[in-house]
Design brief:
Rossmann fold, 6-stranded parallel beta sheet, 4-stranded parallel beta sheet, disordered C terminus, 2 domains
Length: 348
């Protein structure tokens, strides 16, 4: 197995097993990055002749399909769609759609029929692809993101140095994600203000992004400076989530929501907006955690309070998280790689 990447830098680089060869495509951030990556991937296909190519995200997906057409490789080409904004302009959010991205998305949509399989990470996203891309509907399948492993339980046991977790007398709500408009942490801060009008509560926000200072300023303006803690990026968020009373997802849009499953894997009760597409599927229409309307701070506050007072058992939540295990996803990808109907890969 090889890992062909646009950039080999990042906080999780050390997690790649040493027996996986990492190949960097070239100049990350260069205006010709896509063309450079395509040329080098074409060369890679010609040299190594892999059995299958699995790509994810819009630009790598386009590179994979174009390389397949240019080389006429016999490798199965499987593209993974993980962002609903890559599927249709209908879901494009402010600041996401540059002219270059619009062109790449248009090209991907036109060429997607040349992929052997298109994997969407939720049923809702799969339907969205089928309705917006001119490719045979049977090519589009759903495989949920691989999330659960025993590693999460081990990470939960690691120590948290933040003093705010020293006292458990005040209920703690936590959220994890990029700090940008799409995640709508501002709505969650307003919900916390509503809760604090009747009882103590604090909010911990993990993640980084363009809105970090704006969210801190919002908390201060609402008189929540001492009750909203924006802690930035943490390489082990599980240790923090396991210490919280409620995990709250406030997003306006999600294709799946890996972090929602991760919170359940930590045994933390969850509350989520009922946004497209993943949360409703993960929570099975609210069976495993409350769903609230998008952008509704009052409903979010009520759901958080009810969850604090009547939490679902951690064992039950972990059991649900196991439905999204790495092993299950791996088995499903194996069947896709080696062809429909094969329960296992061919003999070595």
């Amino acid at each position: 197995m090889d890992l062909f990447v646009f950039s080999a830098d990042g906080p999780y680089r050390r997690d790649v097993p040493i027996d996986i060869r990492v190949i960097e495509s070239g100049i990350h951030g260069h205006k010709l990055t896509t063309i450079i990556a395509l040329a080098r991937f074409v060369r890679y296909l010609g040299r190594y002749k892999p059995d299958a190519v699995i790509s994810a995200l819009m630009t790598p997906n386009l590179v994979a399909i174009l390389a397949k057409l240019l080389t006429r490789t016999k490798a199965r080409c499987i593209v993974i769609v993980r962002d609903v904004r890559d599927v249709s302009k209908q879901f494009e959010s402010a600041g996401y759609g540059s002219a270059t991205r619009s062109i790449i998305r248009w090209m991907l949509i036109q060429l997607a029929r040349h992929a052997d399989k298109i994997v969407a990470v939720s049923d809702g996203l799969a339907d969205c692809v089928r309705n917006n891309w001119p490719c045979p509907r049977e090519k589009v399948i759903r495989i949920y993101n691989p999330v659960y492993s025993e590693r999460i339980a081990a990470k939960c046991r690691e120590k948290v140095d933040e003093e705010i977790f020293d006292s458990r007398s005040v209920p703690t709500v936590i959220t994890v994600g990029r700090l940008d408009p799409l995640k709508n942490q501002a709505m969650l801060i307003h919900a916390i203000r509503r809760i604090r009008a009747t009882r103590p509560v604090r909010l911990v926000i993990l993640g980084d992004g363009e809105l970090r200072l704006a969210l801190q300023d919002l908390a201060s303006s609402l008189g929540l400076r001492d009750y909203v803690h924006v802690l930035g990026f943490k390489s082990n968020p599980f240790a923090y989530i396991s210490q919280a009373d409620v995990f709250a997802l406030s997003s306006d849009l999600e294709s799946f929501s890996r972090v929602l499953v991760e919170a359940m894997a930590c045994g933390c009760p969850v509350v989520s907006t009922d946004c497209p597409f993943g949360p409703r599927e993960i929570l099975e229409d609210g069976k495993w955690g409350k769903l609230v309307p998008i952008g509704n701070e009052e409903a979010m506050a009520e759901a958080i309070l009810e969850t604090i007072d009547h939490p679902i058992s951690p064992d039950v939540l972990v059991s649900r998280a196991k439905c999204f295990s790495i092993e299950r996803s791996a088995d499903e990808y194996e069947r896709v790689i080696w062809g429909r109907g094969l329960a296992t890969c061919p003999p070595k």
